[in-house]
Amino acid sequence: MKKVHFTETVLRDANQSLIATRLPYDKFEGALETINKAGYYSAECWGGATFDSCLRYLGEDPWERLRKIKAKMPDTKLQMLLRGQNLLGYKHYPDDVVRKFVEHAVTNGMDIIRIFDALNDLRNIEVAVDETIKRGAMASIAISYTQSPVHTMEKFAQMAKDMQKMGAGSICIKDMAGVMSPAEAHDLVSAIKDSVDLPVVLHTHCTTGLAFMTILKAVEAGADIIDTAISCFSGGTSQPATETLAYALKQLGYEVDLDEKVLKEINDYFKPIRDEFLATGTLDPKVMATDTQALNYKIPGGMLSNLISQLKAQNAIDKLEEVLLETPRVREDLGYPPLVTPMSQMVGVQAATNVLVGERYKNIGKEVKAYCRGEYGKAPGEINADLMKKALGDETPVTCRYADLLEPEFDKVKATLGDVAKNDEDVLSYIAFPQVAEKFFAERKEKEERKATYTIEIMEDND
Ligand code: CO
Description:
The chain is α/β, with parallel strands linked by helices. It has helices spanning 13-19, 25-36, 48-56, 62-72, 95-107, 126-134, 153-166, 182-195, 211-220, 242-251, 260-280, 293-297, 301-313, 320-333, 343-357, 366-372, 385-392, 410-417, 424-432, 434-461; strands at residues 5-8, 42-46, 77-82, 112-115, 138-144, 170-174, 200-203, 225-228.
């Protein structure tokens, strides 16, 4: 009987997709020991947004959060999402920073690091993968899924082969926009399964309503691990429900390790928390609904809402249809980048600019220029020659791995921070989110000083 493994996303992607990553540690702490004994393959608990939100909004040290989760969940593998050379952000970091970050993620408790690059340029993930393996964790390498004439099954299969050579412990198909159809999932999982001898993971979102069907067809084609969210934090822009898929797959004869009684306990724990977020408005019921627009326009839901609000702000919402027609042309001119952050913003803004200015590429965005220069990596297809000329003039684009041009940074930043940083983890938080970390360090210090005064007062009282 074929076994299907489950990765629970409530602590990361579900939290990020539904409530903008505003779930503080204290609120989910009480569920950790239960999640630990449910029978999950892994629990996703860290990524760019969780890290940022801890420092920016929740007053939490993300590293400390990771250590606390690890202590309460010794039996379930902890998992994070990493953007290769971009770590948790959108710019390229030098190799020494990437290695340090991965090292500390693993020593603080991470077991599986899912590593991807927005352009699927494997040069941008090789250092992170190498360090992950060196530190004894599993590198689950992800394909950023997209559709285009240059993204063929053969190319995806070849990518999977290259990822296996790099030392991948599993291959993840990452459908960040929830646009992968059941038929496409079936074909893609089959193609990857035929090419490599590794577990295949499917990550998708319910946004367009396809996810349950897509996962089922992926499992039928041999997918081994699926990402799901406990039911009260599932659906809409989040993952499909853990309990539902466990129930359906068991009935179809698949082996599932999850204990439904424990799943119920987890869901009972999170339900009042969900209701609280609904009551405060942090959870907008809209994001829990099905929205098929992404299928019509072939662009992710988040990108569409961004375009609409940008056009509204410019008093040009009447141009929406034109911009939506221009978007695939810009994407084609840029060599079909997957529409994931930061490419989705880049393509959307350039399409809107082309329409509003009334001439294609008269104004070219700074990011598009950097992309043409090769600073994000290699475009999946050819960049339009006219656009290249307009963007770069006589400048020659970079063809090497962009991070090869970057100087080591960690020791320099560490020296500059001095005792503001208590440890290497602080230095890494600062490198990832400088202003936010700085503010966090100052507030932390203030809290500690207040605590110290308080202790002295109590001692005096006892005298
Ligand atoms: Co996701």
